[in-house]
Amino acid sequence: MLESNKIYNLDCFTFFNQVEKESIDLAIIDPPYNMKKAKGDTFKSHQDFLYFTFKWINALIPTLKETGSLYIFNTPFNCAYILQYLVDKGLIFQNWITWDKRDGLGTSKTKYSNGQESILFFTKNKKHIFNYDEIRVPYESTERIEHASKKGILKNGKRWFPNDKGRLCGEVWHIVSERHRNKINGKTIKNEHVASKPLELIERIIKASSNEKI
After folding, report:
1. Which SUPFAM superfamilies does the UniProt entry name for this protein (predicted)?
2. With contact defined as beta carbons under 8 Å apart, do 159 and 152 qualify?
3. pTM of the predicted protein model
4. Whether 102 contacts 174, CB under 8 Å
5. Model confidence over 141-160: pLDDT tens digits?
6. How far apart are CA 59 and CA 125, in angstroms?
7. What residue ranges define each of the domains in the chain, with the CATH number in brackets?
């Protein structure tokens, strides 16, 4: 079996075969998108891509604890297929998260410009970990919140006061991509990985769906 606190560079199926069954609290998967931007992201057809995707999902599911959570990155189009497959496998859909990458101006003139990726959040049952208080985000209306902090806002007969940590995190995440985060002299540069994810994004998922030292 694999050791904890160690990085492995393995074929995913070799990796899953060495992971103890029902031992994983949280899986964050950033798999191929079939966008043909790299060798490992290129498939002969969409059906070949789905065959590979469903195969690694089948290998992953047995490694999750009954209280485990699963996050999968991909394009909205691919996520539509992945979502249905996960539902058919008996997993519980929690959220379709939209990552707004703040990725600059698009160039498409035949459709709306792409500037986001999707993240599917599934669990094995309803007794999963979710630390909602750890991932609060700043309130958007600062003036209204400042007023509410002093006198509160009357809601359903009760006086509501804003939380010092901010509002509950929603399904649209405004987090700048690594491509734009690492600009040099205002120009984007080529990252080492074609689809690297911001640490801030991964940290949010870990804080929400796992507990320290457990």
Report:
1. S-adenosyl-L-methionine-dependent methyltransferases
2. yes
3. 0.90
4. yes
5. 877 788 788 778 877 888 88
6. 18
7. 12-128+171-209 (3.40.50.150)
